[in-house]
TrEMBL record:
It is a multi-pass membrane protein. One of its GO terms (cellular component) is plasma membrane. Its main location: membrane. The keyword Hydrolase does not apply. PROSITE patterns: ABC_TM1. This is Sugar ABC transporter permease. Keywords: Cell membrane, Membrane, Transmembrane, Transmembrane helix, Transport. It comes from Candidatus Carbonibacillus altaicus. It is found in: Cell membrane. The keyword Methyltransferase does not apply. SUPFAM superfamilies: MetI-like. Residues 74-265 form the ABC transmembrane type-1 domain.
Length: 280
């Protein structure tokens, strides 16, 4: 007689403990916002949290795309975000390579100086950056956002990449040096490819920060043709009325690119976050 397997209560408890916060923090806001975007103002202001619309008002999404200048602002956000990530990866990986593989007099001081930048809020540099970009004729251009986002993402990126590169065995470099490889080839052929998980982690953090940022963009950008996605939600707020349904639809559309990126690149994202965290 074989005894019936007993239920693993600990496993069930851990599963519930993980799923419950997921439902509260991730799925609930999305479901609420989706229902919100399919209602008119009367249903939103008088209905319950999960009250269904009398009929789905998909025209809110048409209004969001047309009146909120969604496609134009989406294009601007994509250019600014991915350009800042490319600049960030180039400079952060170069600096981290030097700090992790070479020893010179002030290397540790330079590393600590980068870490000190993590304590500086982006908004605290609004005035000096505004004056600097004005003198350089970069104000009201995409470059003002690209340079700012990449610069303020440098400290955490250098921390992650430097610690990751320090964990790479030096025997790989020694073998390449015997074959005649120089510092640049060592970086491009060995260090850079191995560091891709950490670079994925850095890219994710920089993407989220730049994609959702509003204050810097509102300060440096005044031309309507250069505004980014966060500005679109204010297109439906006037002095006497607010189109809440269109705002909800616009927020769904604004979050859609991030959701699609996670769906199609989830394996790379998880691998980058885990390997970058473990080795970093």
């Amino acid at each position: 007689m074989h005894s019936r397997p007993q239920p693993n209560l600990g496993k069930w408890f851990i599963t519930i403990f993980i799923i419950f916060p997921l439902l509260i923090t991730q799925l609930y806001p999305l479901l609420w916002l989706l229902l919100y975007s399919l209602k008119n103002n009367d249903e939103i202001l008088s209905g319950g949290i999960f009250s269904l619309p009398s009929y789905p008002r998909w025209e809110n999404y048409v209004i969001a795309i047309q009146n909120g200048h969604y496609l134009q602002y989406l294009f601007n956000s994509l250019i600014v975000t991915f350009s800042s990530i490319m600049i960030l990866l180039f400079f952060a990986s170069s600096v981290s390579y030097v700090l992790s593989r070479f020893r010179f007099r002030f290397s540790q001081h330079i590393f600590l100086l980068f870490l000190a930048g993590m304590m500086l809020p982006m908004q605290s540099a609004l005035l000096p950056l505004n004056l600097m970009f004005k003198n350089l004729h970069l104000l009201d251009t995409r470059w003002s956002l690209i340079f700012t986002y990449s610069a303020f993402a440098m400290p955490i990126s250098v921390l992650i990449l430097t610690n990751f590169m320090r964990s790479i065995p030096r025997e790989l470099e020694e073998a390449a040096i015997i074959d005649g490889a120089g510092p640049i080839r060592l970086f491009t052929s060995i260090i850079f490819p191995i560091s891709r998980p950490a670079m994925m982690t850095v890219s994710i953090l920089a993407f989220i920060s730049a994609w959702n940022e509003y204050i810097i963009a509102a300060t440096f950008i005044s031309s309507k043709s250069l505004k980014t996605l966060p500005f679109g939600a204010y297109s439906f707020v006037s002095q006497y009325a607010v189109n809440y349904g269109a705002i909800g639809a616009y927020l769904i559309l604004a979050a859609l690119p991030m959701i699609l990126i996670y769906v199609f690149l989830s394996e790379w994202i998880m691998r980058g976050m885990l390997e970058g965290a473990v080795k970093g």
